[in-house]
Amino acid sequence: MADIDLIDVGISEDTGYRSSMEDEHAVYRRPNLQFFSAEVYDGHGGRRASQVAAEMITPHFLHTWNRESEKTLSDQLPLSLFLRDAYVAVDNHLLRESVESGTTGAGLYLIADRFFAVNCGDTKIVIGIDGGVNELTVDHKPDAPEELERIERLGGYVISFGVSRVMGILAVSRALGDSSLKPFVTAEPRIAEGYLGRENDFAVIACDGVWDVLTPDIVIAITRAAKDAQAAAENIKTTAIDSGSTDNVTVIVLDLRAYVAKLKRGKMEITQIIDGANQGR
């Protein structure tokens, strides 16, 4: 049985060259459920949306999962559905409360040997595999073919002047909040589901202030060279800023080595990708 208390967590953040900090992060541990999550939310147009997301998404998921567990096993719905519903519910809450800001988000959820990598926007999750690295998320950019098709099908448009922007405003095509850009900017997350393996050594969740200037290969190399998870997070943040990042920078590093050491699987396995945003194209 995997022990989530064996996961060493490092967190580092910096306002960078911005005038204010709009990022938020969250880490949840529930040993009785063998549950762990690490999440980064990259706000824009203010910090309120990212604060609400960090405070509400995982509690919403845990509450729904708890209610579902009261059903017989054969009647229970997939956990990925509850993660998707948590994003959509928090997005609806932001709209009802007239929160004008928005936020991207990415969270790595672990339940025993299972993982769910959830993202909406361009906050990214990478995980070490057998000396290399695997990207568990896909950036949601307005000029990506499926994103562009969806936006135009809904009556929106994308303008590109160096950077592609939805309605000429936002440089991501998925985010929570952003009421003025609905329905073109959706909070529908992409979810990669699967099983961890003994090959998984580290995971990194970070905002685009890191990924705009550092590749996943560089980030995982920095992580492996550090003395512990906290040092790795600090080193990634510093390297991103020194490499020219002009954005807020938030990094979470997870040292998974002790956690996965006794797993039966040697290799990580991705079993399915769930993404409802472009269904019915």
Overview of the structural elements:
Helices cover 28% and strands 31% of the residues. Strand 4 (102-111) and strand 5 (114-120) form a beta hairpin. The radius of gyration is 18 Å and the shape is globular. The longest helix has 21 residues, at 48-68. It has helices at 48-68, 79-96, 145-153, 208-211, 216-225, 229-242, 257-260; strands at 8-14, 23-30, 35-44, 102-111, 114-120, 124-129, 132-135, 158-161, 163-166, 176-177, 190-195, 202-206, 249-255, 269-275. The protein is built from 7 helices and 14 strands. It is α+β, with helices and mostly antiparallel strands.
Count of β-strands: 14
In percent terms, what proportion of residues is strand? 25-35%
Structural class: alpha+beta
Arithmetic mean of pLDDT: 94
Report the principal-axis shape.
Answer: globular
Intertermini distance: 42 Å
Mind summarizing the main beta sheet?
7 strands, antiparallel
Low-confidence stretches: none
Task: Give, in order, the helices and strands.
Answer: EEEHHEEEEHEEEEEHHHEHE
Assembly of the depicted chains: single chain
The helix tally amounts to: 7
Q: Helix content range of the residues, please?
A: 25-40%
Task: Report a brief summary of the structure.
This protein is 28% helix and 31% strand.
What features would you highlight for this structure?
alpha+beta; 281 residues; five-stranded antiparallel beta sheet; 7 helices; 31% strand; seven-stranded antiparallel beta sheet
Which SSEs are present, and which pair or pack?
Layout: E1 8-14, E2 23-30, E3 35-44, H1 48-68, H2 79-96, E4 102-111, E5 114-120, E6 124-129, E7 132-135, H3 145-153, E8 158-161, E9 163-166, E10 176-177, E11 190-195, E12 202-206, H4 208-211, H5 216-225, H6 229-242, E13 249-255, H7 257-260, E14 269-275
Antiparallel strand pairs: 1-13, 2-3, 3-4, 4-5, 4-10, 5-11, 6-7, 6-12, 8-9, 11-14, 12-13
